[in-house]
Amino acid sequence: MKVTIYDVAKEANVSIATVSKVLNNSGRISEKTRKKVKQIMKELNYQPNMLASALMGKQTKTIGLLIPDLANPFFSELARSIEDRGNELDYHLVICNTDYNNAKENRYLSLLKQKRVDGFILASGFEKLDKVQELISEEIPVVIVARDFPMFSVNAVALDDFTGGYLAAKHLVDLGHKNIGVIARDLWSNRERLRGFHHVLAENHLTLNPNFQFVNEVDHIKAGRNMAAKYIHSDNRPTAIFACNDLLAAGVIQMAKELGLDIPQDLSVVGFDNTSIVSIIEPPLTTIAQPIQNMGKEVMDLMVSIINEEKDAKSRVTLLPSLVLRKSTKKIT
Amino acid sequence: MKVTIYDVAKEANVSIATVSKVLNNSGRISEKTRKKVKQIMKELNYQPNMLASALMGKQTKTIGLLIPDLANPFFSELARSIEDRGNELDYHLVICNTDYNNAKENRYLSLLKQKRVDGFILASGFEKLDKVQELISEEIPVVIVARDFPMFSVNAVALDDFTGGYLAAKHLVDLGHKNIGVIARDLWSNRERLRGFHHVLAENHLTLNPNFQFVNEVDHIKAGRNMAAKYIHSDNRPTAIFACNDLLAAGVIQMAKELGLDIPQDLSVVGFDNTSIVSIIEPPLTTIAQPIQNMGKEVMDLMVSIINEEKDAKSRVTLLPSLVLRKSTKKIT
DNA sequence: TTGAAAGCGTTACCAT
DNA sequence: ATGGTAACGCTTTCAA
Predict the structure, then answer these.
(1) Nearest-CA neighbor of B253 among B265, A142, A254, B136?
(2) Are B60-159+292-319 and B161-290 in the same CATH fold?
(3) B74: closest chain A residue by CA
């Protein structure tokens, strides 16, 4: 059967208190007994039961990660980088796919709370904030990542989406484009990107292509294709399209090519995220890069520092996007 | 503070035993008290502590998933499908990236054992099987997925890799190719695919392009590029390449195009996995499809049935790959 | 139908 | 330096 501290204690002729102390390097134990106990633990292949110690108030060393969709490269790369840092810091991740579905979000939150995770990293939509609010009032550590809630005080590491949109628009406008379409889902971050985008347009006395509207298909590639077709078939076809993520951009490029357009000659397109698929796309996609690795590290570090109460003030880390030039945009002639 | 069964019991004027019973729908409780207790639980917003109940021998409802790399589309899609099924069955997933590194694998195993996960789903390499063997002898449920261990009796849901290789070779040979290159990492599943591949070649008195050798870069796209360059520059250039995953194939296509070859006119390429990136590749990739959704469901179902001891005999589910024709292969002329 | 009490495997305080 | 023991929050007999 499972070996417990009792077994170790008996075998080593000490009390369980002593065993517990050598386990945690706490209290004062003579070098001699420490050696002996450790020895016995090896022999018996003793594995401490974390459930019991967590029940006594210690950490579970487990973080809940709520993410919209692991099959989306941006999120899987983000999850990967968070897990990497977690591993270094000895935390495990319970990863949950929410599909931006509020009911799923809430269900996961409540279930993981019952499992007493040490904290939550939220990368999901959470258009309804009440449950998140609840976590906070219960003093459960929460960090938001890749999703901003400017209206409400919570720890977060986010991208400066406004700047992202700004950069994209600036690049396109600098290339001489005057009729630009945008493709985006109706998410907070995208509204920010649009704000940045509009800012540049306004500076240049330009306006968005009037066919713009938010898309809502879950399959991003398909969404990109459909919206691209709509833009291309309209009687006032844009010369450039800014897609709010790389998958959308991939769809745009696909459809544009199928409709006989040359990228970037007939249509410039810039994506967002800089996931690993950008180099697969033909032509390689010019995109606004999110520093995914960094983001993962920052969010995990922030989480852990909150858990350890190293900082009581809420803090917010904002990372900057950057423009990565490849081959999908071109100066207008 | 945290509300426990004691609080609920007190408030409802019953014993904690009664509360526990209504919680688990066990024992016989009068409808009246059941109602009352449930009512109080609502009011107090009582959340049962799973740590405590797991400590008493109940399940943790958590499964450890060891996977090589979440940033690889095949694995993230697989993880996604496993998690989906887990969610339906009320299990959470702790996801760990192993990078095919045996030390990491073992470390995760031991840590998750301490957390008393109900079982392990292993999608990682595990070239050293001792720790897996150990799990089995400790009667901890284990299922292997997307990775076969024919030599050793363990529950598994795997792809018929031999058939996968067979299908790829058959397709290429049917198109008239006689000089075919292969690109693969040295993994068990790839050795099987090669076996199936060779089988077809032998049937047709053909032999593999002699420049073949296993690759081992971790960056698959890069690996595909490098190996493709090698094949293309050799003085006996293959007319077709079988890449053992889609990423590798993407690299091949990229490099081939950079070197001025037309796909599929000058070089046919078939991939493996049928991940979502295939439709982004130009031209769309002909590939051997793994039924990823199915695989995720099967593995989770198998896991749960083992946990619930619905089957004591080891079982092994083998799924069949299929050829998906797209535009990257062409009849030789 | 309900409740008392004995665990589950730890930690931590207080003695010794 | 070491050990006894009361928690932690729950489940599960066994009595009542």
Answers:
(1) B265
(2) yes
(3) A71
Strand D at less than 7 A from CB of B5: yes
Distance (Å, whole) CA A280 – CA B253: 9
d(CA B162, CA B78): 20
Question: pLDDT of chain B along its 333 residues, tens only?
Answer: 689 999 999 999 999 999 999 999 998 899 999 999 999 999 999 999 999 999 999 999 999 999 999 999 999 999 999 999 999 999 999 999 999 899 999 999 999 999 999 999 999 877 778 888 889 999 999 999 987 776 677 899 999 999 999 999 999 999 999 999 999 999 888 999 999 999 999 999 999 999 999 999 888 999 999 999 999 999 999 999 999 999 999 999 999 999 999 999 999 999 999 999 998 998 999 999 999 999 999 999 999 999 998 766 568 899 999 999 999 999 998
Fold of A161-290: Rossmann fold (3.40.50)
B142, with CB counted inside 10 A (0-12, 13-18, 19+), is buried
Residue B123 CA and nucleotide D12 C1' are separated, in Å, by 38
Measured in degrees and rounded to the nearest 5, phi and psi for residue B71 equal -80, -10
Identity (one letter) of the amino acid at B10? K
Classify residue B185 by its DSSP letter. Answer: B
Strand pairing class (A240-243; A180-183): parallel
The CA-to-CA distance between both ends of chain B, in Å, stands at: 78
Strand D positions within 7 A of protein Cβ atoms: 1-5, 7-14
CA A4/CA B16 separation, integer angstroms: 27
**Between 1.10.260.40, 3.20.20.70, 3.40.50.150, 1.10.287.1120, what CATH number should domain A5-48 receive?**
1.10.260.40
Q: Is A98 on the interface with B (CB under 8 A)?
A: no
Q: What is the pTM of this model?
A: 0.94
In angstroms, the CA B36 to CA B23 distance is 12
The answer, for A5 touching chain B at a CB cutoff of 8 Å, is no
Q: How far apart are CA B298 and CA B252, in angstroms?
A: 32
Give the minimum alpha-carbon distance from B53 to chain A in angstroms, rounded to a whole number.
10
**Residue that the structure tokens 């060393």 belong to:** A61
- At A205, list the tokens: 């006395």
Say if domain B60-159+292-319 classifies as CATH 3.40.50.1980: no
Pick from A55, A111, A281: CB nearest B55: A55
CA closest to A91 among chain B residues: B111
* Torsion sign, CA atoms A120, A122, A124, A129: positive
